[in-house]
Structure formats: C-alpha cells, structure tokens
Amino acid sequence: MREKILYALGAAAIAILVWNINTIARLPEETQQGVTFKIIFFHVPMWACAVTAACAALLSSVGFLSTRNFKFDAAAVAVTEVGLAFTSVGLVTGSIWGREIWGIWWTWDARLTSALVCWLLYAGYLMLRKAIEEPTQRATFSAVFSIFAFLDVPIVVFSIKWWRTQHPQPVFWAGGSFPPDWTRHLMWNMVAMLMLGIVMTAVRFRQEEAQREIDFLRRMAHAI
Amino acid sequence: MHVLAQVPFLAQVATKEEVLQHQYEFLSYGLTAAWVILAVYVLMMIGRERKLKREIASLRAMLEEKHGE
Predict the structure, then answer these.
(1) Of A37, A62, B32, B34, which has the most beta carbons under 10 Å away?
(2) What's this model's pTM, rounded to 2 decimal places?
(3) Minimal C-alpha gap between A112 and chain B (Å)
(4) What ipTM was predicted for this assembly?
C-alpha cells in the first residue's frame, strides 16, 4: 500500500512537471535576460527543496539525540542525501545561469560561497557516516554534525540580504516583481520537486532500514 | 565581407537570432544538467536497492541453512 502511494506520488510529480515544462516553454521572454531567465523555474525550486531537506535533517537529528530512536537517524541520512542532490542541481544550474548573465561561471561572493560550504558540509556528513562503524556512535556523531551543518543554512538564505553580492536580491520576499502567472508555474514546479523529493526520501529511508536489517542478520549469522 | 563587419565593434554585434540561439543553448545546458544529476542519483538509488535486496536474501538463506544444520 505504502509503495503504491509512493509510485502514485512520483507519477503525479512527473505529470505535473511535464505539463508545467510544456507551459513554461510557451511563456514570453523576460525583457532583460531573454529565455535564459527560465532557468529560474528549476533553480529556485531545487534550492527550496534543498533548504526544506536541510530543515528536515535538523529536526531528524534533534529527534535522534532526544529519543535515541534509529528511525530518526535513518530519516536524517535519507533527507540529507536527497537534499545534497538538490543542492548539486541548484549549484550547477546557478553556475550555468551566471555564465550567461554575468559572464562568469563562479564568483566568491557570500551567497555562492556559503552555498558551496553548505554542499561541502552535507557531503562531509555523508562521508562521516561511512567512516564510523559502530551504529550508535555513528548516529550520535552524525546528528551533532548535522545540527552544526545547519548553521550555514540561514547564512545561505539571508546572505543576499546581509551583504552586497553578485547574486541578485531575493525576488519573492524583498519587493521584487514577478508576474503572477509566472509565480503560479514556479509554485507548480516547486510542488512537483517537493513531491519527487518526498518519494526519493521515502525510498532512501527504506534502504536505510534495509541496511539496519542486514546489520542485524549479520550479527545473527556471527552469533550462530 | 561587408565593409561594416570589418569594424571590430560591429563585427561583434550579434543578430537577434544569434542572441536567442545562444540563450536557448544555455537554457538547455541548465535543464540538461538538472535532469542528468537527478537521473544519476535515481539510478544510484535503484542500484543500491538491488544490492540490498540481494544481500538480505543471501543472509536469510545462510541463516536458514545454519538453523537447518
């Protein structure tokens, strides 16, 4: 039953994306940036999903430290890995967009640098997990590291408000203008990406549970 | 070659079609990169799922064998 819900959610997300991409392709060109501006319909939803994943990782890590329930640990690793995939897409699409509009692939401004640090921190979290064998120690250290890594997330989000950056100021929460029908399509993409993210996290969560079952079976095999 | 195109600045001025083509090129790079990264991640996940299923099945079979002895 749970699997059917996941497949349905994934299929619905793909259907929304296909319909929405078709509609976005027919939208008029933006006056300053032309068609390149349409990268925003993927770049922003990817980052929204990445930030949502980081928040979920924080909650799961706090949940593990306060309850010692390994389901929270599995949720933290699942959501972090999926979030890292979204962060990678956000960084790459941003870099391609920057090359076209700014003429450079990368610049060390506050937004881009903090975003790269965020990627490195969460990649470090996944590497840390591979380095520790003992499950309880691994889950505890990883949870503490994840909480520490989250400190960078508000810096990524608010860096464009706090400092002068090459990256433009926020469009949606700082008085920027965006046509209402464009906003609707952006929101649809955001909903579809979030749905995809939920499906991927659920699959990854199940894999983490399967890994724990393997560890248990291995211990049983050694004990017999 | 037209005499105006020999002037360096004017030779660099692209036509509207060229600009549009260039923009579409970068838009396609962005979209392709986005979907390729997600597709690679999904494929990695599918591979891991298969490996885990195989591992669970072999461990269960081994345990049953040991219990049978």
Answers:
(1) B34
(2) 0.89
(3) 17
(4) 0.89
